[in-house]
């Protein structure tokens, strides 16, 4: 076991799983993590393919091996719970605070040889290995809780894990973009109900980020200012869409929200990615994160299904114009009613909102905490 001290007194301990995958424990103090993965080595799946969609210029990962991944197992067979009698899980230890491990069924994985993304050569563009990295981050060993219900100290450990993995994955030569995210609720495709998220490290820049990079670059060229800084300044001026704020962070419903409930959480002093956050910013994140998710769950008095996505600058491009923010989107528009991404949204990418952002912001602010 190797141990590495991080900020806020958090310690990372590195171990290896039975099939060679890496697992990293994040603890609020020094803990001896000596448990050995007792499962037999079942090997790891082969690497998938990246294919270029010539109509859009987007890269699409083909990962057929993921068809056999675990799907909604009962609690007693949850692979993200600690190991216990009758259950040899992904986590060999009998308890943990936060862990990050290499995904057993990754969409993207390390290439077998030296690797470079092919250039767009039209019909002659070759397919290539789906290079990248996919990791699972378990927010707690308590199967019955949620990110919202975590203590402030526990959320701070999660934040440190995000920062640490962003820093480490940015050093890999074929990684272009790092994307930590959480899917919560079966309505948005969750296949394991244990509180957890994922970290995708892409070997290409994703379509959404390319569009944001283009907008931010044009804004900087025209106004010589950072786009997200100006967006936040407008939210502060308008006030009506702000739902929470502290010394270092602001949370607001965006001016052109796409979902019934969409919240952006951003540092007041912008940074390119999670690794660039100061310790003071990282320390201030748990309180606003907990408030935002508590307000979201409080709107209808139910656990809201959501996708919480960290948008950050790519590893080697756009770091002078793109800024970090956390986007939380829920497709729940009312109790028993979902907003489906139907014809206009799915086929054209043209979103239509049935409710103004100012209305959802007011509902979120009205929640009693």
Q: What can you see in these coordinates?
A:
With 369 residues, the protein is an alpha+beta fold. The protein folds into 2 domains: 2-204, HIT family, subunit A; 209-366, HIT family, subunit A (2-Layer Sandwich). It has 6 helices and 17 strands. The chain has helices at residues 152-170, 207-223, 227-238, 279-298, 343-348, 357-366, and strands at 2-5, 11-16, 22-27, 49-53, 58-62, 98-102, 128-129, 132-138, 177-184, 196-202, 242-245, 249-252, 261-267, 306-311, 325-330, 332-334, 337-338. The strands form 3 sheets. Strands 1-2-3-6-8-10-9-14-15-13-12-11 form a 12-stranded antiparallel sheet, sandwiched between helices. Strands 5-4-7 form a 3-stranded antiparallel sheet, with no helix packed on it. It has a two-stranded antiparallel sheet with strand order 16-17. Strand 2 and strand 3 form a beta hairpin. Helix 1 packs across helix 4. The chain is globular and about 55 Å long.
Summary tags:
2 domains; 6 helices; alpha+beta; HIT family, subunit A; 17 strands; 12-stranded antiparallel beta sheet; 23% helix; 369 residues; globular; 3-stranded antiparallel beta sheet; single chain
H-E order: EEEEEEEEHEEHHEEEHEEEEHH
Global morphology: globular
CATH homologous superfamily placement of the largest domain: HIT-like
Biggest sheet: strands, sense, closure? Answer: 12 strands, antiparallel
Question: So how many helices?
Answer: 6
Query: How many separate structural domains?
Result: 2
Oligomer class: single chain
Q: Could you report the average pLDDT, rounded to the nearest whole number?
A: 95
CATH topology group of the largest domain: HIT family, subunit A
Give the helix level as a range of percent.
Answer: 10-25%
**Radius of gyration using CA atoms only:** 21 Å
Quickly give the CATH architecture of the largest domain. 2-Layer Sandwich
Helical/strand content category:
alpha+beta
Low-confidence regions: none
